[in-house]
Amino acid sequence: MSVSSKAARALPFLSADGSGSSVSGGSSAASESGESVASSATSVSSGEAAVGGRHRAPQFAFAFDIDGVLLHSSEPIPGATETLKYLQQHRIPFILLTNGGGKSEADRVADLSAKLGVELDVSNFVQSHTPYQRLVNPDVDLGYPELEKYLSRSIGNTRLSRDSTILVLGSDASKARRIAKGYGFESVVTPADILKANPEIFPFDPLTEFYDKQEILPLPKPIYSPKTNPDLKLEDCLKIDAIMTFNDPRDWAVDVQLVTDLLLSHRGYLGTYSAKNGEKRQWQNDGQPALIFSNADLLWSTGYHLSRLGQGSFRAAVGRVFSRLVTNSGARALPMKFFTFGKPELPTYRHTWDVLQRYYRQLLEEDREDGIEPDSSSSGSSVLNRVHMVGDNPESDIRGVHAWNRIVDARSPEDKEAKPIAGWNAYLVRTGVWAEDKMPLDRIDEAARPHHVTDDVRAAVNLALEKEGWTGRIE
């Protein structure tokens, strides 16, 4: 959102502002009429106000999915450009929240700006792997205890370090490496690096054209291979601390092989096999790498008329292979252990909340510098009191809203006063993944059912503005 040069700044790391506890509970039902029934997502009138033609920042915000909401492939969905320009013009905070990835935030925002015809900024953009930044920054709260527990059990620490060696997966692992290094990771390995060092790891013809385009670098340490280098000490060999997926991998065969090799390894040393494998409940309990995915989308909307397989499908494939390897050894079936970011996961909504809050406070600071005081309805608060999420996928966009709202509703009065966080409203549009004829509203799980259904993003925002008591509309 480029409403001024003051606000056009990157927000790589943000301080904690909300609860990280996980609370189970019910969710709210969908309504075609637009009535919100979630207690944490109720609407309070807040009128439009301007001083000298300048609109003060209201106390509500929007979050938009991209594919299927703002864009179809490279083409703007009708009304999308006008919607974003209207919000910018009226200083209404918004964020682009996508399960896409594989490019740096700066490159993706530049691409979106060109496609949508709207000047956008990294300060209000979160893609699936953006929260990976938190994993390597010791000064930032991870924001979710379950993530700390998973990392502690996997690698013996509650976060990764700059020196951790990570294997990155994605449609272009070379690009993923550059992104990871931009986040602060200094030792980053790709599948192409490993295949170059030891082609026997994958005994089939590789996708030559694909790998010829990859940047291939020497491994930081050699791969453990008692057959070819029996004198090499294990501690002097390549050890992977985490496997991080940035977006949908292209060569599933190679990546599935490498991931399962590492999940079966001794402490992440590629080329080893853990002696604990086969013991009761000891699979993935020998210091194997943390396995991290950036989203769980089985499908995503493209230019093709049917939705395509996404990263969630890759995760399912890896999990199924791992489970079959476990049972093939004579052990009882055990699920693969992993952690997932992206929508609908709470760490991503927590990170998004932090980004929105920081941006909102920037807008308020600009107001104060220009002599524009908050209106009486805000009570001087610098905390947003509502976020309107517009998405096209009930299982990611909408389910995440309800999970967040359960946390909001379950917090103690003292916690709410000390660290206020806002509830979200969920709007489902008909321009993307969700097709009403294939998945009627009454067949959607209640925890993934929207508060409102609209034809497109413009209709969703106009409905939200009406509920906020805002007088203007997007034409």
From TrEMBL:
SUPFAM superfamilies, alphabetized: HAD-like (SSF56784)
Quote the Gene3D superfamilies the UniProt record gives.
HAD superfamily/HAD-like
The name on file for this protein is HAD-superfamily subfamily IIA hydrolase
For this entry, list what GO says about its biological process: glycerophospholipid biosynthetic process
Q: Which organism is it from?
A: Cytospora leucostoma
The taxonomy runs:
Eukaryota, Fungi, Dikarya, Ascomycota, Pezizomycotina
Tell me the domain of life. Eukaryota
Q: What InterPro entries does the database record attribute to this sequence?
A: CDP-alcohol_PTase-I, HAD-like_sf, HAD-SF_hydro_IIA, HAD_sf
GO cellular component terms given for this protein: mitochondrion
Disordered: region residues: 15-36
UniProt feature coiled coil, ranges: none
Instruction: State the NCBIfam families in the record.
Output: HAD-SF-IIA
